[in-house]
Design goal:
heterodimer; A: about 110 residues; mainly beta; 4-stranded antiparallel β-sheet; 11 strands; B: about 110 residues; 6-stranded mixed β-sheet; 5-stranded antiparallel β-sheet
Chain lengths: ~110, ~110
């Protein structure tokens, strides 16, 4: 199993600003994923963070809005850029593959 | 796009009763998984059932899979107040270029003491 730490756990942000969420895994992992969970909704995959190359984004998500870094096999960041109230969500980092996913506790963002 | 759909959306039972949640999906899968989420926090993996399996048990959890009907059920027996959470099914879609899960909308289970 993998233990995933995310920070910040929550934040209140102003419209138009950007926030970077950090995700640290306690072991080296090949695949890391970023999910968004809007209020009362299910999880939607934003992108797969690839070590050493650009992230792979899902339909509806673009790099300019959600730039992702993956500098090594244990760490990734997700930036939510130029935020609007519609970006208020829980953002979850996860890791795994060919089996269960392990999740961080999530970062709850509120955009005013 | 979401593949799984759980029902009911919400379920309220008394402690000690059994809780059954269902999940339907649309395309062929390699496996189906159930996750639990407490009050908007991270998800915890409960159980995975492969496409060639029909039933699986883990403690008080029993999962069934019917690939002909593209459906699965999660049964929690002898429920406890601590089981109160949202439960999501997730499918690993066969043939995808990258491993990724598609989550359903979830069932909010409330177990009343």
């Amino acid at each position: 199993s993998a233990v995933i730490s995310q920070k910040p756990s929550r934040d209140i942000c102003q419209r138009g600003t950007s926030l970077t969420i950090q995700c640290q895994v306690d072991s080296q992992v090949t695949m890391m994923f970023w999910y968004r969970q809007q209020p009362g909704q299910s999880l939607t995959l934003i992108a797969t963070a690839n070590q050493g190359s650009e992230a792979t984004y899902e339909s509806g998500f673009v790099i300019d809005k959600f730039p992702i870094s993956r500098p090594n096999l244990t760490f990734s960041t997700l930036t939510v850029s130029n935020m609007s109230p519609e970006d208020s969500s829980i953002y979850l980092c996860s890791s795994g593959g060919a089996g269960e996913l392990f999740f961080g506790e999530g970062s709850r963002l509120t955009v005013l | 796009s979401q593949q799984g759909e759980e029902d009911p959306q919400a379920l309220s039972i008394q402690e000690g009763e059994n809780a059954t949640m269902n999940c339907s999906y649309k395309t062929s899968i390699n496996n189906l998984q159930w996750y639990r989420q407490n009050s908007g926090r991270g998800l915890v993996h409960l159980i995975l059932i492969r496409s060639n399996e029909r039933e699986k048990h883990s403690g008080r959890l029993r999962v069934t899979l019917d690939t002909s009907k593209k459906s699965s059920s999660l049964l929690i027996t002898a429920s406890r107040a601590a089981d109160t959470a949202s439960y999501f099914c997730a499918t690993d879609v066969r043939g995808g270029s990258n491993y990724k899960l598609s989550f359903g909308k979830g069932t909010l289970l409330t177990v009343n003491p």
